Amino acid sequence: MTRFLVRLVINAVALWLTTIIVAQGVSVVPFEPGDTPQLVLTYLLVALVFGIVNSLLGNLIRIVAFPLYILTLGLISLVVNGLLLMLVAWLTVPLGFGLEIDGFGWGVLGALVLGLLSWAIGIVLRPIIGHQRA
After folding, report:
1. Distance of alpha carbon 118 from alpha carbon 78, whole angstroms
2. pLDDT tier, 2 (very low <50, low <70, confident <90, very high otherwise)
3. CA-to-CA distance for 26 and 46, rounded, in angstroms?
4. 66-92 burial, b for 16+ CB within 10 Å, e for fewer?
């Protein structure tokens, strides 16, 4: 359970940094503008939705499209991750908050930046996370 919460926070921080880096095309709309606790909660909820979508649908797509991954030397993963990020936006925006993406290109770029940041933050925190697992 602790590992899940740490991954959720890592993804939320990576999402926050992604919205700063790719500010023109990827943004998060909070419950109420200007309220920091609700903005943090929004990032956590969007990270939770992205984690669920990525673990359920993303893994299924990776299994089914395995030949395409081999054929494109893994570059199809950029498209798949961009589409998964756009799916999260599609799921969260009707709720009145959540992720907003301005187009497919921004979705791919946002997914690339999000993946790199999540990986980098995970590497930095690995010694801390590793001690909690033991």
Report:
1. 15
2. confident
3. 13
4. eebbeeeeeebbbbbbbbbbbbbbebb
C-alpha to C-alpha distance for 123 and 73, rounded to whole angstroms: 24
Scanning the structure block, which residue is given the tokens 């969007």? 46
Domain ranges of the chain: 2-133
Q: With bands split at pLDDT 50, 70 and 90, how would you rate the model's confidence at 83? A: very high
Q: CA-CA distance, 7 to 68, in Å (whole number)? A: 28
How far apart CA 103 and CA 89 sit, in angstroms, is 11
Please give the pLDDT value at position 132. Answer: 53
User: Can you give the pTM of this predicted structure?
Assistant: 0.86
